[in-house]
Amino acid sequence: MAILSGTPVGAALTTLPLDPLENRILLCHATGLTRIQLITQSERPLADDEAARLEALVARRLAGEPIAYIVGKREFFGLDFEVSDAVLIPRPDTELIVELALERLPPGDARLLDMGTGSGAIAVSMAHARPDARVTALDVSEAALAVARRNAAANGATVRFLPSDWYAALGADERFELIASNPPYIAAGDAHLAQGDLRFEPVGALTDHADGLAALRTIVAGAPGYLADGGWLLLEHGYDQAAAVRALLAARGFSEVRSWQDLAGIERVSGGRLAA
Ligand SMILES: C[S@@+](CC[C@H](N)C(=O)[O-])C[C@H]1O[C@@H](n2cnc3c(N)ncnc32)[C@H](O)[C@@H]1O
């Protein structure tokens, strides 16, 4: 029998070993109770199966598994996204590139490309906010694309999904008013890959298996061939990569090259514009 069987949910909330927010999330997930019901039904005892589920969830969290993988979802840009270990967990920092893209995507049926879509966080948020735009999202991982397709459907967003190694599957005559990407940018062997949530995330979403700039270089190099005149390229990158990405953009002939800071004041996104 599970140790917590028969424990009132209110008491379980305060005795679980995680931080208060995580205790609450896992208790809701194991019981199906809402946050409000945890309060209004605080004396309700945990059934044996609920207690067993809860204890298994807590054990996974104590082993370091990210809470988003345990509950299978994460909120991003006000929408619910399914996540699994096939996709990077969408980060709050990435909302910056969505905001910048929304400010720059022309009105009407503008074309947007999200490269390395993962869960679909950027593409689905954009298509949801701009249903008049034509959004294409690509990824080299078929497993990620399956998750992204479900996220588009669940959020009522229309996105064209494409399995592709960066630009490889795009037609030579395709053009976009804006290309956005949050590619893998952690250098091979970086100590962060063996720490925290990153240990559980797909390695191909995190590292370029090189110096951290390999995917960014490929995307910058190919972008002029797929951008409409005056089109924007926006790239998320690592905390120490802004100057290097600006240099890549300038060397490839982009104008209006600059970086933007995230909420922590770190230059998180860099971009530039193709001459009109
Ligand atoms: C850092 S994750 C970003 C996921 C999502 N866009 C986000 O911001 O949460 C990078 C994504 O790029 C994809 N990727 C890696 N190499 C790729 C390649 N050669 N071509 C296309 N996509 C690639 C990975 O599968 C992963 O989904």
Q: How is this structure best described in words?
A:
The protein has about 280 residues and is of the alpha/beta class. It has eleven helices and nine strands. It has helices at about 10-15, 20-30, 35-40, 50-60, 65-70, 95-105, 120-130, 140-155, 205, 215-220, 240-250; strands at about 75, 80, 110-115, 135-140, 160-165, 175-180, 225-235, 255-260, 265-275. The strands form two sheets. It has a seven-stranded mixed β-sheet, with helices on both faces. Strands 1-2 form a two-stranded antiparallel sheet. α1 runs antiparallel to α2 (about 20-30), α2 crosses α4 (about 50-60) and α6 (about 95-105) packs across α7. The protein is elongated, with a radius of gyration of 21 Å. It starts with 8 loop residues before the first helix and ends with a strand. The relative contact order is 0.11. The model has no long low-confidence stretch (mean pLDDT about 95). The structure holds S-adenosylmethionine. S-adenosylmethionine binds near residues 90, 122, 139, 140 and 165. S-adenosylmethionine binds near residues 138 and 165.
Number of helices: 11
Overall average residue pLDDT: 97
Question: How widely separated are the two ends?
Answer: 69 Å
Order of strands side by side in the largest beta sheet?
5-4-3-6-7-9-8
Topology (elements, then pairings):
Layout: H1 9-15, H2 20-31, H3 35-40, H4 48-62, H5 67-71, E1 73-76, E2 79-82, H6 95-104, E3 111-115, H7 121-129, E4 134-139, H8 142-154, E5 159-163, E6 176-181, H9 203-206, H10 214-222, E7 227-236, H11 242-251, E8 255-261, E9 267-273
Parallel strand pairs: 3-4, 3-6, 4-5, 6-7
Antiparallel strand pairs: 1-2, 7-9, 8-9
The structure holds S-adenosylmethionine (SAM).
